[in-house]
Specification:
Layout: H1 14-28, H2 35-47, H3 53-64, H4 71-81, H5 115-132, H6 135-149, H7 163-170, H8 176-184, H9 191-224, H10 226-233, H11 248-275, E1 278-281, H12 283-290, E2 302-304, E3 311-317, H13 323-337, E4 343-348, E5 352-354, H14 365-375, H15 387-397, E6 406-411, H16 423-432, E7 435-440, H17 454-457, E8 463-465, H18 469-478
Parallel strand pairs: 3-4, 3-6, 6-7, 7-8
Antiparallel strand pairs: 1-2, 4-5
Helix pairs in contact: 1-4, 2-3, 5-6, 5-8, 6-9, 8-9, 9-10, 11-13, 11-18, 15-16
């Protein structure tokens, strides 16, 4: 394995300056790194073997990271600051590495001539390496593949490399059948052996993809500068992904991020109930009890406090414009119902229906949300948001849902399609409730623009911008 340069030659600022730039990049990627963590990272350099790249990676990850979700961003940045090469990547603009450096990546010479024959030879070599499972050889082959197949058309700014060109040419996913045959050998198909072989094939192909992407980033950093590539290569952390722009690959991680918020809120409410069981001091009983101790009030007595059961009413816009946001807020509602029975959920588009029945304890939240779209009576006219009519239907059909012991939570972007916003109805609900909050997934700067009535709604109900899981966590913490 080619080790990272462990001396002050890493960059003009020396190893400490190099580490400082790496820690700064990790912080800019959204990972909270304080001064104490930065000091611990410097201490890591004195206790690990700097010639062992993976030991250095794990040592820095141990002191800089707090959650597993932060690891992918960390790994991308680590590969940029400590690339798998014997020459460092410059911090600013610099010349790219000589393509000839990858010429020894494969174990043997590959035929040169007809492009089709060369690509087939590369595919055959990839199949052999995937079958053998040598990670180091696979990384060397990825460097060769990027050098030979990933180059784009030269431009005045320099040579560009693209991972999709490599993966399209080699098509590693089409080698699964042959790879399975090589992994299974003479073993019978089916059963546990084939399942293990399929999982192994999937992991090795994914490792090759990762190696290709890392090599492309390294070469791009050599051309355009490491800091610029770092800003574009690192995906936002799960708790910083915009609900309205979340992709399918983000959903699972976002679910894992949202679920603990309900437990945190439930724990806070339970603690308040436990600590609030005793009311004001009962002076008469305390004085009477002190007679047994010579007039010293060693034991105090309090009047019992009537502790109300937490009640929460959620009004959630489930129209298409906020579908991603409503998905996760309804997940929060479902998780809260696991702890408290006094939670009622209502969904609306241009009409309102109670959807509490879909969120029974133990129910699958994804299935519950799908059932809301099929079975809930939330559309009465054209299926476009009508907050005024939805609020009026709610107040008319469930007049006792909101009371002096109820916390009201409204979830939506407040875009009314230029229809009546129903401000008097909302103001009446807020007045009758114990507390009320509105969570808006749109940026604050857009409130009141176009058909948004958010600026008018916020005059009668406290409105909070909640576009990410991090902002949702902040709201739950302060609720």
């Amino acid at each position: 394995m080619v080790a990272p340069v462990p001396s002050a030659a890493v960059e003009p600022g020396g190893l400490v300056g190099h580490l400082d730039g790496f820690v700064r990049a990790v912080r800019e990627a959204g990972v909270p790194v304080g001064i104490s963590q930065a000091v611990d990272a410097a201490e890591v350099l004195t206790v690990v073997d700097l010639l062992d790249r993976e030991q250095l990676r794990h040592g820095l990850a141990a002191v800089l990271l707090r959650r597993a979700a932060q690891r992918p961003a960390f790994d991308v940045l680590f590969d940029l600051w400590w690339p798998l090469t014997d020459r460092p990547v410059p911090a600013g603009d610099g010349a790219s590495d000589d393509p000839a450096e990858s010429g020894d990546a494969a174990d043997g010479p590959l035929p040169v001539g007809d492009p089709g024959a060369f690509t087939e030879a590369m595919r055959a070599e990839l199949l052999r390496l995937l079958t053998e499972g040598d990670e180091e050889a696979l990384r060397r082959f990825a460097r060769l593949a990027v050098d030979q197949l990933g180059a784009g058309a030269p431009s005045p700014s320099g040579q560009s490399f693209f991972s999709y060109r490599v993966l399209r040419a080699l098509s590693p996913d089409t080698l699964v059948a042959q790879l399975l045959a090589g992994l299974l050998g003479d073993a019978d198909r089916g059963g546990l052996a084939e399942q293990v072989a399929r999982q192994t094939a999937k992991e090795r192909i994914a490792a090759f993809r990762t190696a290709v992407e890392a090599e492309v980033r390294r070469r791009t950093a050599a051309e355009k500068g490491r800091d610029k590539v770092a800003r574009n290569a690192v995906r936002p952390l799960a708790d910083q992904v915009d609900f309205l722009r979340a992709q399918q690959s983000d959903l699972a991680e976002l679910r894992r991020t949202v679920a603990p918020l309900a437990r945190r809120l439930a724990a806070k409410l339970s603690a308040r109930r436990r600590l609030g069981r005793e009311g004001r001091l009962d002076f008469r009983r305390t004085v009477r009890a002190s007679l047994a101790t010579g007039g010293m009030p060693l034991v105090t007595h309090h009047r019992p406090r009537a502790v109300h059961k937490p009640e929460l009413v959620v009004l959630c816009d489930v129209s298409g414009s906020v579908a991603g946001f409503s998905h996760f807020t309804l997940m929060l509602t479902q998780a809260l119902r696991e702890h408290f029975s006094g939670v009622r959920a209502f969904a609306f588009v241009d009409s309102t229906d109670e959807v509490t029945r879909f969120f029974t304890p133990g129910a699958d939240v994804v299935d519950a949300i799908a059932r809301i779209g099929r079975e809930a009576d939330v559309v009465s006219f054209d299926g476009h948001s009508d907050y005024g009519n939805a609020l009026e239907v709610f107040a008319e059909r469930w007049p006792g849902a909101v009371g002096p012991k109820t916390s009201l939570l409204v979830l939506g972007d407040g875009r009314t399609n230029y229809r009546q916003p129903g401000l008097p109805t909302l103001a009446d609900l807020v007045r009758r409730s114990r507390s009320a909050h509105w969570l808006n997934p749109e940026p604050r700067r857009l409130w009141g623009s176009g058909d948004s009535a958010a600026d008018r709604y916020r005059e009668v109900i406290p409105m909070v911008e909640v576009r990410t899981a991090a902002q949702l966590a902040d709201f739950v913490t302060t609720l």
